[in-house]
Amino acid sequence: MVYSGLEFGQFFELRTDCRFATQALTPAARMVLTLVQMQFIFLNNREMDMLRHKVVAQFGLMHMIATNLCEWLTVIIEEAKHEIHHLHLVGGLASLNDSAEDDSDYGGHHVSSRASHGAQQGDCFVSDILGALVRNASPFLFPCTIEYSLICAVVLFEMWKVTHRDHGHSQHGGHGHRGSRDPESPHEHARSASHLSLDCTKAHKGLFGGIVVVVLTIISLILFFVLNEAPGFRDVAMLVVIVCELGLYVITTTAALLACYQIRALKYTKKSGGLGLDNTLLVMAQTGVFLYNVFSVLAYSSMGVMPRVLVSELIALVQTICQTIFVLDATRRRCSSPREYRRKPGRQVITFLLVSNMAMWCVNTLEKSRARSRPNLMKFYGEWPWTLIVHISMPLAIFYRFHSTICLFEIWKACYKLKQHQPQSMSLGVRKHTDSERSERSEREGAG
User: Fold this and answer.
1) 168-171: long-range contacts (C-beta < 8 A, 24 or more apart)?
2) Torsional class of 274: left (φ above 0), alpha (ψ -120 to 50), beta (otherwise)
3) Which of the residues 154, 176, 224, 367 has the least number of beta carbons within 10 Å of its own beta carbon?
4) Which pLDDT value is given to residue 102?
5) DSSP for 356-405?
6) 14 phi and psi angles, rounded to 5 deg
7) Whose CA is closest to 157, among 275, 61, 50?
8) Other C-beta atoms within 10 Å of 334: how many?
9) Among residues of the chain, what percentage have pLDDT more than 90?
């Protein structure tokens, strides 16, 4: 919504003779679509009965899925175009070095118009206030837009699958169908999440360890940005961030393996219905991590330089594999005995991973999201190919880290509840038996 609002506001920075209706209607329509689509996703299961008009519902859902995928691709292309034009104007390409010296006031759509339509089109902008806002906020707004489109597409696909399931229920009216909800549907997750109770025992060590990792990561990123701007210290800045990433990935890989080993003590419960919404989003987002790391490994191994960076990218790939395997396994684990409930095996490590993924999210968002942050890879692949690779893969990698914290929190909250696996009457019986023993003990002590 912020990105579309800024684009809409840029329409009023144009001269009157350069304005076209579509320049304002497109972002305005995108904002309306965002609001209406969110309302549909949250209210359709309660207010609508899609199975009464199944063909229309399937067509509409598939059309909305295609719209979100098109929006996803459009934003990727726009983001890549902005950075490529920025590289043109700062002298990244030798053919435009002269024009880069003339245009020192580059930024946002102002840059794009000058690079592609000539100086006369650039004169259409009477001010550059919102253009500067778009330029400064684009590293954060573009990934949010891409991730929003991805989440909506997956949620709508889950709804589309429901319309193919249990065809006989559609003949008995909507209320009968809504009574048997899919346990893996996003609405069940949303409804169960409204009743939140947290037990923070066996988590403090992992929490403090994760906070230390986040603090050290932020300090390393600050040093990277400061040294990168200082003349003659660019190599030192790269060394700082590479050592930070290497240490971060080694620690979190070890933590993921340790968590896999410790959580085996909990009982594994089989569930029907596939991976579920959260795990599907996690696996889809991991493709972005694979894409970025594989291209990085291929380039660094071919160049034969900077072995530390090659090792860092390899360990990052291993870390995501180990963490995803752990999440897919742990989502089906539950406590089955009072002893497991008291011990809570693996919870400290899960807490550490939950907080550490925030640190890796900071690295991806602030340092890796720009194609020019890896000049060696840009030189190896070329400006256009590497920029497209980064802007296709990195929003998914950022979303992987963000969504991993959500999945790990769900594991942290749900796996260690005894009532999830045992009947409530059994837990009440154990509690009553314990209370009766305490009362008898107190009576004996009083009599003594």
Assistant:
1) 169/51, 170/51, 170/52, 170/54
2) left
3) 176
4) 39
5) HHHHHHHHIIIIISSGGG-HHHHHHH-HHHHHHHHHHHHHHHHHHHHHHH
6) -85, 150
7) 61
8) 20
9) 14
Where do we find the tokens 């006369």? 120
Q: Is the overall model pTM greater than 0.85, yes or no?
A: no
Can you read off the two tokens belonging to residue 45? Answer: 């299961």
How many residues are listed for the chain in this entry?
A: 448
CA distance 36 to 33: 5
Ordered DSSP codes for 128-161: -HHHHHHHHHHHHHHHHHHHHHHHHHHHHHHHHH
Per-residue pLDDT band at 357 (split at 50, 70, 90): very high
Q: Please, what is the Cα angle at 288 between 7 and 89, to 5 degrees?
A: 45
The structure tokens listed for 233 are: 């210290």
DSSP string, 23-66: HHHHHHHHHHHHHHHHHHHHHHHHH--GGGGHHHHHHHHHHHHH
pLDDT digits (tens, 9 = 90+) for 303-323: 876 788 888 889 999 999 999
Say if residues 252 and 366 touch (Cβ distance below 8 Å).
no
CA 390 – CA 80 distance, rounded (Å)? 8
Of 182, 151, 187, which Cα lies nearest the Cα of 65? Answer: 151
Q: How far apart are CA 272 and CA 190, in angstroms?
A: 19
Residue position matching structure tokens 């009553």:
432
How high does pLDDT run on average in the chain?
75
- CA–CA dist 20, 32 (Å, integer): 19
| Whole-number Å distance between alpha carbons of 100 and 171 | 66
Of 370, 320, 353, the closest CA to residue 86 belongs to: 370
- Matching residue, tokens 């594994």: 268
Phi, psi dihedrals of residue 267, rounded to the nearest 5°: -75, 135
Distance CA 68, CA 151 (A): 9
**Is the distance from CB of 256 to CB of 311 less than 8 angstroms?**
no
For the stretch 211-235, pLDDT in tens is 999 989 988 888 888 888 778 888 8
Measure Cα distances from 26 to 7, 15, 182 in Å.
9, 18, 36
